[in-house]
Design brief:
Layout lengths: L1 H17 L2 H8 L4 H6 L1 H17 L2 H13 L3 H8 L14 E6 L5 E5 L2 H39 L1
Antiparallel strand pairs: 1-2
Length: 154
């Protein structure tokens, strides 16, 4: 029973990472990933894990991730394109890769994420953050001015 719970836990964790039932089942030592997704205990565990993860993601995390996409290096993507047969995919950071295609001749075409778009979104988020801070400063100043006016009238 305990072993089955451990496998279900590993399955859920891996499934939330890759969203591939077969890959998650193989990593967890389970038989059929789709059958695992059908089981009530696994569905309940996935819901709890999703809820916990949703509560953990913060605005700063999104900003940090966008910054990594906008400013990150593409060395591993280039390594994959140049040495595709020798590359250890598990060890490569391919977060900047938007699309990957193997050509008819065996070459690899890699399309990188749109860094300009990532920068635009990042600037927008940072601009909102500053606007919120400026709005708060304005409210404090307005409150202070209102309080001064009340003292002058009295």
């Amino acid at each position: 029973m305990k072993e089955r719970c451990g496998r279900a836990e590993r399955f859920c964790g891996k499934y939330l990472q890759c969203m591939d039932p077969d890959q998650a089942a193989a990593a967890a030592g389970c038989g059929d990933g789709y059958a695992m997704l059908e089981s009530k205990p696994v569905r309940r565990r996935l819901e709890r894990m999703r809820a916990a993860a949703a509560g953990q993601v913060r605005r700063e995390d999104a900003i940090r991730r966008l910054a990594r996409l906008a400013f990150g290096r593409v060395n591993d993507a280039a390594r994959l394109a140049l040495h595709s047969g020798e590359a250890d995919l598990e060890a490569l950071d391919l977060s900047a890769v938007a699309e990957l295609k193997v050509t008819d001749k065996g070459g690899v075409e890699i399309k990188l994420i749109d860094r300009i778009r990532a920068l635009e979104v990042l600037c927008g988020l940072l601009g909102e953050e500053k606007a919120e801070g400026a709005g708060e400063l304005y409210r404090v100043l307005a409150d202070a001015a209102g309080e001064e006016g009340a003292w002058d009238d009295g």
